[in-house]
Amino acid sequence: MSAAPAAPTRPRTLVVASAFGTGSVLLYFGGLFALYFSIRADAMAWGTTWFPEGAIQLVPGGMNMATMALSAITMGWAVSAVLNDDRVHAYLALALTAVLGVAMVNQTAFYFADIGLPIDASEAATLLFVIVGSHLVMVAVGIIWLGLLLLRALGGQDTSRHRDLVSAAALYWYAVVAVYSVIWIGIYIAK
Fold first, then answer.
1. Domains identified in the chain and CATH numbers
2. Where are the beta strands (DSSP E) in 87-176?
3. Which residue, of 17, 66, 70, 160, is most buried by count of CB atoms within 10 Å of its CB?
4. pLDDT in tens, 62-84
5. Is the separation of the CB atoms in 50 and 42 below 8 Å?
6. What residues contact 151, with CB distance under 8 A and at least 6 apart?
7. Is the whole model's pTM more than 0.85, yes or no?
8. What DSSP string describes 162-178?
9. In whole angstroms, what is the distance from residue 178 CA to residue 111 CA?
10. Which residues contact 136 (CB under 8 A, 6 or more apart)?
11. What is the pLDDT of residues 155-171, one digit of tens each?
12. What are phi and psi for residue 120, nearest 5 degrees?
């Protein structure tokens, strides 16, 4: 008597499509960063002040970086939990990652309200708002994606057989964290 044939492997089209989409978002941010760093280098070469003294503080940006680093860890936890069919930990990890994303958005919104720098104060302020605002949109898309995954997991559809859903979201979320690390180092620290 022969054994039943193994289930066919699912094509990883979702992960590939997510990689292409994430790549295009990374190219968009690469263009923004190139523009920002180029204009800042020109301004600094001419002796122009880039931001007013004390406008950019290290603590809020550092707290956001710590939050994003923790969210990368919890996203890895979610992928591991789904691979192991551990539903409870998958719920916890997806929810915690989304909560950390919401916390990051909240901290950034509070920080921008606190610095009181108008968007049209200078070229530096405009670029700051465009880059960080674009990243907030990126985080919001990730939070919505995680929310949909959480609803799907609560409905009983996310098992190790459907791990591509969480793997694709994890790929995107790691890109969110990578983009913020460039913002943190290039804008908040290097000013």
1. 15-44+58-189 (1.20.120.80)
2. none
3. 70
4. 999 999 999 999 999 999 998 88
5. no
6. none
7. yes
8. GHHHHHHHHHHHHHHHH
9. 20
10. 105, 108, 109
11. 776 566 678 889 999 99
12. -105, 20
